[in-house]
Design a protein that fits this description.
Chain lengths: 438, 392
């Protein structure tokens, strides 16, 4: 019926199934991740099953309440006929541990676009959603987000093989020590430097420059979209809820009418139904917002990779420049011409030429330095090229993932809207029937 | 043949045509907007009165024109009547009337038939919302209401035969007629008597009229509530529309950054745009169909209260004179008392008949306005749904 206008058969298949919920479509994305299959996912099922409140003393010895999340892992194996699947291994993690894992991944794999965590605090809320971290709806959405994070890492060809990641999933007690032992914290400073430094790179790879710009623009546009969407949701809530007043008034009015009474009364009920329906509709839309948020946070990860490239490129340019300078010095020393100002040159002018011996020892030291410099440049250049190669490979992978995920998100959003319209048609048709009987 | 007439009884300093001249292309009556057309036809379809098939009046109110004189500025409306009634010399009339003329007509009708329910006129001047008297929207709303008023009168089995009604529809110049009849002072006298009688109080109101009074009081509050809720919905819809207008373009902005994603993003942008258009139409429907209908019945409720008061006064006057007669106070004329007794009978009977007629009309009018709203809403969701399907 509605499908006649759609394009390819693929689209029809998706649009036709208008009963698919947004959770299901998010699962579709996850299923794709699993299907593509890394070695890890081929042998292990991962999910974040539950969330629980805990209280305990924090680092400054104060009572605090926090939420822990249950990570379940289960070996992937065929279940025997009539048998039950094996019980999963379980451990509890809190949000800060996820953060620690992610920081470790960021510094260990600076050329990879590291999947983002769900937001720490609720942002882009529309009025009804609580911004409270302990609100059950927020906790539930965070649980889904954390599971998504783990699955994204687990489906990454490189990250899935990381030992620390594996231990995060399997080793509750000893994990923190294992992470710290890697000494990754030393690299944290370097990462911070690359993110915040304002250095000028002469020849960055143009692809990365373009990518950073795209990433910044995408960040801005998704932020705006989320902001406006929240306002739209707020207003739509208002429209639906005011119709609830019809319910009350029609009911009261029906009490004084004879022929009109029944029609008014039942129409009033439909108005109540209409007003109540917005709660579920907007809750479902939050899933869509979460999908957009994930890619909003992804832009930070992309930016981080671009900045790392810039840093490496800058360092390369610095050592290359340094080498060029030294070579020039050698030339001047060898030919006796002074093109470059140097203290030695000045003092020799003032205090007389240096002896042949002195010159030769200086030349030797310089040669040594130049040789070392050339080594450094070679190494740095190789590091840079390797970074560009591996990073761009991952960026291509990321781009494909992004396009697919967002396309699916937009489709599921359209499906949600269609479902909302169906409900609307239902309610108002029913109300019309009631008024007809008046 | 039609003649455009400008009433020139005072020096006219300027004439400005403010609203599109809605000429009657085929000579048939054509209300201005499609929605009021729908309402009009619904009303005619569902009329159950005898002889309703033979609608013998076709009246239109249109073509408001501003008249500026040395003293004042006012609007004149064109009133075109086509009728098959034998009381009318011709079958077609065209006159120009101003709001005051309508007020006069209604006043005379109420005066002649104090316990008939005479359809209300649009209000004199709406201060709230700071609507200017010569604002196009205000004039159009008023024009539609005046049109409805005359048509309601023309459908009334008693009022449509009123001499005042005939004069209103046919006389080229109304001012001389307005000066005739019971003057201001005699009308004052009647009001004073009525107040005096009501202060005295009723002996006993017949049960059925007490029931009616209670209904009228409740109906009045309820219809006001429905009106308020509807206005609130319009307000919320407008705010929703404002946000939608920001939402769509953001998707377009995003589409400009993308390659593969550009198409689906543009699709959503187009959809949101569609949604905006449809929401605008929803607001229009509410403002032009449902709100006027509800508002009319808010005014009707006040009319009903006035009718009930007048009925009470008629009864009170009779009771006062009757008591005076019984106690042989002064020289109370027995014949006068008989006359008043009959007056009470007539008042009660006409009210009862007109009451059931009014109730039917109310049901019909409000039902059709509410149904029109539900249809618009279904239409809205169907169109948005279709746009969503096409977008991806």
């Amino acid at each position: 019926m509605m499908m006649a206008d759609s394009g390819s058969s693929e689209e029809v298949a998706v649009i036709g199934n208008t009963d698919i919920t947004s959770t299901e479509s998010e699962n579709n994305i996850i299923n794709t991740m699993v299907e593509r299959g890394t070695a890890l996912l081929k042998k292990m099922e991962i999910n974040v099953a539950e969330a629980e409140k805990r209280t305990g003393k924090n680092t400054v010895n104060m009572q605090e309440t926090y939420t822990v999340y249950l990570i379940e892992t289960r070996p992937v194996e065929a279940v025997p006929e009539g048998g039950t699947p094996a019980a999963p291994d379980m451990l509890w993690r809190r949000y800060s541990e996820f953060e620690l894992l992610r920081t470790y991944l960021l510094v260990t794999y600076p050329f990879i676009v590291i999947p983002p965590l769900p937001e720490k605090r609720a942002e882009f809320v529309w009025h009804k959603l609580s911004a409270d971290n302990l609100d059950p709806d927020f906790v539930e959405r965070r649980r889904v987000g954390l599971e998504n994070f783990l699955l994204r890492v687990a489906s990454h060809p490189l990250l899935s093989n990381d030992k620390i990641f594996f231990l995060f999933l399997t080793e509750e007690k000893g994990w923190r020590d294992a992470v710290l032992e890697t000494g990754f914290q030393d690299k944290v400073d370097s990462r911070l430097k690359s993110l915040s430094a304002m250095f000028r790179v002469k020849n960055p790879d143009k692809r990365f420059t373009a990518l950073k710009q795209y990433s910044d623009e995408l960040n801005a546009v998704i932020s705006q979209l989320l902001r406006v969407r929240a306002k739209v949701a707020d207003r739509l809530y208002g429209v639906y809820k005011v119709h609830g007043n019809y319910g009350r008034v029609f009911s009261e009015w029906s009490a004084i009418e004879k022929e009109m009474g029944d029609g008014l009364q039942s129409a009033g009920h439909h108005m109540d139904t209409y007003a109540a329906s917005i709660d579920d509709i907007l809750e479902e839309e939050e899933h869509y917002a979460d999908q957009l948020k994930e890619y909003l946070f992804y832009t930070d990860a992309v930016r981080s990779v671009c900045k790392k490239h810039e840093l490496l490129q800058y360092e390369l340019e610095m050592v290359a420049q340094d080498l060029a300078y030294k070579k020039q010095q050698r030339e001047e020393l060898a030919t006796g011409t002074v093109r470059v100002f140097s203290l030695k040159g000045m003092t020799s002018k003032l205090f007389g030429q240096e002896s042949q011996e002195q010159r030769e020892s200086r030349l030797a030291a310089l040669e040594q330095s130049i040789q070392e410099g050339e080594e450094t440049v070679k190494e740095k250049n190789a590091e840079c090229q390797e970074f560009v190669r591996t990073a761009w490979k991952d960026i291509e992978r990321f781009k494909e993932q992004k396009d697919q995920d967002l396309r699916e998100a937009l489709i599921s959003y359209a499906i949600m809207q269609i479902s909302m319209c169906k409900k609307g048609i239902q309610v108002w048709s029913n109300a019309k029937e009631c008024f007809n009987k008046m | 043949s039609r003649r455009q007439m400008l009433v020139v009884d005072v020096p006219v300093l300027g004439v400005f045509s403010l609203v599109q001249n809605t000429s009657l292309a085929d000579g048939g009556p054509m209300p201005n907007s499609p929605s009021s057309l729908v309402n009009q036809y619904r009303l005619e379809e569902e009329e159950e009165q005898p002889g309703a098939d033979a609608k013998d009046f076709f009246i239109t109110v249109d073509n408001p024109e501003s008249h500026v004189t040395a003293i004042e500025t006012f609007i004149m409306y064109r009133v075109v009547t086509k009728t098959t009634r034998s009381e009318f010399d011709s079958s077609e009339y065209e006159v120009r009337r101003r709001y005051q003329d309508f007020l006069w007509l209604r006043g005379r009708l109420e005066e002649s038939h104090p316990t008939l329910i005479v359809h209300p006129l649009p209000e004199k001047f709406v201060m709230k919302g700071m609507v200017e008297r010569f604002n196009d929207g205000f004039i159009e709303t008023r024009r539609k209401a005046l049109h409805r008023f005359l048509n309601k009168i023309s459908e009334h089995p008693v009022l449509s035969y009123s001499q005042h009604f005939k004069v209103f529809l046919t006389a080229q110049e109304l001012t001389s007629h307005r000066k005739q009849g019971p003057g201001f002072l005699s009308r004052m006298g009647e009001t004073v008597r009525a107040v005096a009688n009501s202060v005295r109080g009723l002996r006993s109101r017949p049960e059925e009229f007490s029931v009616m009074q209670e209904y009228v009081d409740h109906f009045s509050t309820k219809i006001c509530s429905v009106d308020k809720v509807t206005q609130r919905i319009i307000k919320e819809q407008r705010e929703y529309l404002d946000e939608l207008r920001q939402y769509g373009p953001t998707y377009t902005q995003w589409a400009e950054l993308e390659e593969d994603l550009a198409e689906p993003l543009k699709g959503v942008a187009d959809c949101v745009e569609r949604c905006s258009q449809e929401t605008e139409e929803q607001i229009q429907q509410l403002s032009e169909v449902l709100v006027p209908a509800l508002h009319e019945y808010v005014l009707c409720a006040e009319t009903l209260k006035a009718v009930m008061r007048r009925r009470d006064n008629i009864q009170a006057e009779f009771e006062a004179k009757n008591e005076a007669l019984a106690s042989r106070k002064a020289d109370q004329d027995a014949e006068e008392v008989d006359g008043l007794a009959e007056r009470v009978e007539v008042a009660n009977t006409t009210l009862k008949e007109d009451w059931s007629r009014w109730q039917k009309a109310m049901r019909t009018d409000l039902r059709s306005a509410l149904i029109s709203t539900t249809e618009k809403n279904v239409d809205y969701y169907e169109k948005v749904s279709l746009a969503m399907v096409c977008s991806q």
